[in-house]
Write a structure and sequence with these properties.
By secondary structure, the protein is of the alpha+beta class. It contains 7 helices and 33 strands. The chain has 3 domains: 281 residues, Ribonuclease Z/Hydroxyacylglutathione hydrolase-like (Metallo-beta-lactamase, Chain A), CATH 3.60.15; 71 residues; 91 residues, Sandwich (Immunoglobulin-like). The strands form 7 sheets. A 9-stranded mixed β-sheet has the order 6-5-4-3-2-1-17-18-19, with no helix packed on it. An 8-stranded mixed β-sheet has the order 7-8-11-12-13-14-15-16, covered by helices on one side. Helix 2 packs across helix 4. It starts with 7 loop residues before the first helix and ends with a strand.
């Protein structure tokens, strides 16, 4: 049979076809993987509107929520271009956290700019009721019949496991009405955003009037939208202790007349180890290493297990959610000196990071607790330790030095050929419960003054205070002193 000779060009063509097929298959696989990953992502856009709030939330299912619209003018100048630049021409939900102009002033501009209230697919939620301001009138005119009142415990389902749950609005919580006055900030719509193991807290401008009532309905979150732009009247310690946010986001404007964010709030956030992101510097930037200023809008994305924060002026950082973090444990090593024990007993223990451990020093008979030394120094007892590293601590005890027994004194007249004088004669006995007593000290107490008179060996139990006044009353302290120089409690003797 005659063999057909293969052309070199046919081999090249076959090779190119094979490579193109492989590359095409790879690109399809990458596109499919990328699309799947993007489809799992929840986006939180922190829109920089200066001194005000505005957030865009885009769920994995594509649902879009616009929360607040900054002050008047910010809607048309900043938010609307931001949305249109991302191909967003309609909104599923609009939320007005409360009715101050720096939160709703730009909402009508966005809604009208998109084409009117029919561009709101589902609803515009707020606290209900009315408010006397031009910004409010413009807002309700823009949302029209899409306006609805949000109620505590109401859940907005954004699909694919993303929910937004109201825990306070218009002074109400799920437990009923808790705020009865008219502070607009305290009437804010407060909600929890949840996706898988990721949680975020948004509280508008809610403040200390309402925050103590929210802790029963909130919990440990990953991100805290700092209420009222970092005002010291918000972000109370009781709320922060409940939220324990790893990250705090502060929308704030440079040159604002309110001093936001206040130093006190920044300090409280730093003290709970919450990393701070600010849209602008405002009046107080976060301390170095404790936060960053984005100098503009930035983005939070999460797959429900990890979340990434990025922006043009930010270095992207990815963190695990609370539930995704591996559990970290630290060693607590407890020691004692002679004379006592502790609860828990001396030994080595492992505790989860962040645990608060109470330790009580328990002295034995004839001893008392003096101090804690080691990685923690204190004279408090009991003591509470927060486990943030391995800790070694020692409970120190000292032997009690008791007063001498049967201490007494009398005034006598001493007559001799050379002189006549009065002498106060002091006597005492050794206390058998004392150990290592080396000498006794005697002090004369005159008002608030304690004047040393004499130091006597531990074998002496009598002292003559010579040349005293006949009609004067004298007060003495007699103290036992041990080999380390510690003075015990005094035996008090009065001689008239």
């Amino acid at each position: 049979m005659k063999r057909i000779r293969e052309s070199p060009w046919s081999l090249i063509v076959l090779t190119l076809f094979f490579l193109i097929t492989c590359v095409s298959s790879y690109q399809q696989a990458v596109y499919a993987t990328t699309s799947k990953e993007k489809g799992d992502v929840l986006e939180i856009h922190v829109i920089d509107v200066g001194q005000g709030d505005s957030f865009l939330i885009v769920s994995p299912s594509g649902k879009k929520i616009l929360i607040d619209g900054g002050d008047t003018g910010k809607g048309s100048k900043i938010i609307l271009p931001y949305l249109l630049g991302r191909g967003i021409s309609s909104i599923d939900y609009v939320i007005a956290s409360h009715f101050h102009a720096d939160h709703i002033g730009g909402l009508d501009e966005v809604i009208n700019g998109l084409g009117g209230s029919w561009k709101i697919s589902v609803a515009a939620y707020d606290r209900g009721g009315t408010y006397n301001s031009k910004a409010f009138q413009e807002y309700i005119a823009a949302v029209g019949d899409k306006r609805k009142t949000i109620l505590p415990d109401q859940i907005i389902d954004l699909g694919d496991g993303v929910t937004l749950k109201c825990i306070a609005s218009n002074g109400y919580t799920p437990g009923g009405k808790v705020y009865y006055s008219d502070d607009e900030n305290a009437l804010s719509f407060v909600f929890l955003l949840k996706y898988r193991t990721f949680d975020a807290y948004f509280g508008g401008d809610s403040n200390s009037y309402i925050e103590p009532y929210l802790v029963s309905y909130a919990g440990d979150v990953d991100i805290y939208k700092v209420s009222h732009h970092g005002s010291s009247t918000s972000s109370t310690q009781v709320l922060l202790n409940t939220l324990k946010p790893e990250v705090s986001v502060i929308p704030v404007g440079d040159g604002n007349p309110y001093g936001h964010p206040h130093y006190e709030t920044i300090s409280r956030l730093v003290n709970i180890n919450s990393y701070i992101y600010q849209t602008e510097t405002g009046s107080t930037p976060p301390p170095q290493g404790k936060g960053e200023v984005a100098n503009g809008s930035f983005l939070i994305t999460t797959d429900g297990y990890f979340y990434t924060i990025s922006g043009s002026a930010l270095i992207p950082r990815t963190r695990p959610t609370d539930s995704t973090k591996p559990e970290v444990y630290y060693w607590l090593r407890i020691y004692t000196t002679t004379g006592g024990t502790t609860i828990p007993s001396p030994g080595e223990y492992q505790y989860k990071e962040g645990s608060r451990v109470n330790i009580t020093a328990v002295p034995y008979t004839h001893y008392h607790f003096s101090s804690w030394t080691g990685d923690v120094s204190s004279t408090e007892n009991p003591i509470t330790i927060t486990m943030e590293k391995d800790i070694s601590i020692t409970a120190n005890f000292s032997r009690v030095i008791y007063p001498p027994l049967n201490a007494k004194g009398e005034k006598i007249l001493n007559r001799s050929l050379l002189q006549v004088e009065y002498i106060n004669v002091l006597s005492w006995e050794a206390n058998p419960d004392n150990e290592n007593i080396t000498y006794y000290k005697i002090y004369l107490i005159d008002g608030t003054q304690r004047m040393p008179l004499v130091t006597l060996p531990s074998s002496d139990f009598k002292y003559w205070h010579r040349k005293v006044d006949k009609g004067k009353t004298y007060i003495y302290w007699i103290l036992a002193v041990d080999s380390s120089g510690r003075e015990g409690d005094p035996a008090i003797v009065t001689v008239k």
